[in-house]
Amino acid sequence: QVQLVESGGGLVQPGGSLRLSCTASGLVRDYYTIAWFRQAPGKEREGVSCISSGDGATYYADSVKGRFTISTDGAKTTAYLQMNGLEPEDTAVYYCAADYYPDGAVDIVAHMCSTRNNFGSWGQGTHVTVSS
Fold first, then answer.
1. Are 8 and 64 a contacting pair, CB within 8 Å?
2. CB 97 within 8 A of CB 119
3. 79 vs 21, 71, 113, CA distance in Å?
4. I want to staple 69 with a disulfide (CB 3.0 to 4.6 A). Which of 23, 82, 89, 93 is the partner?
5. pLDDT of the chain, 132 residues: tens digit per residue
6. How far apart are alpha carbons 89 and 87 in whole angstroms?
7. Per-residue b or e along 6-26, where b marks 16 or more CB atoms closer than 10 Å to that residue's CB
8. 44: which residues sit within 8 A by CB, 6+ positions away?
9. Which residues contact 88 (CB under 8 A, 6 or more apart)?
10. Sign of the CA dihedral 93, 89, 81, 53?
11. For residues 33 and 69, what is the distance between their CA atoms, to the nearest angstrom?
């Protein structure tokens, strides 16, 4: 069973930065995607960014391109989301998610990030509040 633990949320002023971390344990296959989703009050949970273990491919939602960067450690079991230029619209609970994809598949990251339904393992969420 995959377990995910997030950290790094908090309160930041507009224009500020935060880095979220997600540590995964229990991964038993080589090909998986780690994702960051977010859910603001009254809104659907949306995919923010994803990274694939096989080829390191990344995906970003249009709303965060150029401001957020996803990366992993050498073991590819801890994923980071560096968030710069934060805006009040980024306020949400951020969730880490992970799931496997078919061995050797390519160009899979955008598909995986398109819906929460592609992920069976979730972290507990961490709050990010952007406010002056």
1. no
2. yes
3. 6, 6, 15
4. 82
5. 999 999 999 999 999 999 999 999 999 888 899 999 999 999 999 999 999 998 889 999 999 999 999 999 888 889 999 999 999 999 999 999 999 988 777 788 999 999 999 999 999 999 999 999
6. 5
7. bebbeebeeeeebebebbbee
8. none
9. 14, 130, 131
10. positive
11. 15
Give DSSP secondary structure letters for 44-81: --EEEEEEETTT--EEE-TTTTTTEEEEE-TTS-EEEE
Six token digits for residue 7: 């950290």
d(CA 23, CA 5): 5
Asked if 14 and 37 touch (Cβ cutoff 8 Å), the reply is no
Q: How far, in Å, CA of 12 to CA of 89, rounded?
A: 12
77 by Cβ neighbours in 10 Å (0-12 / 13-18 / 19+) ranks as middle
Q: What pLDDT, on a 0 to 100 scale, did the predictor assign at position 124?
A: 96
Of 77, 86, 93, which Cα lies nearest the Cα of 25? 77
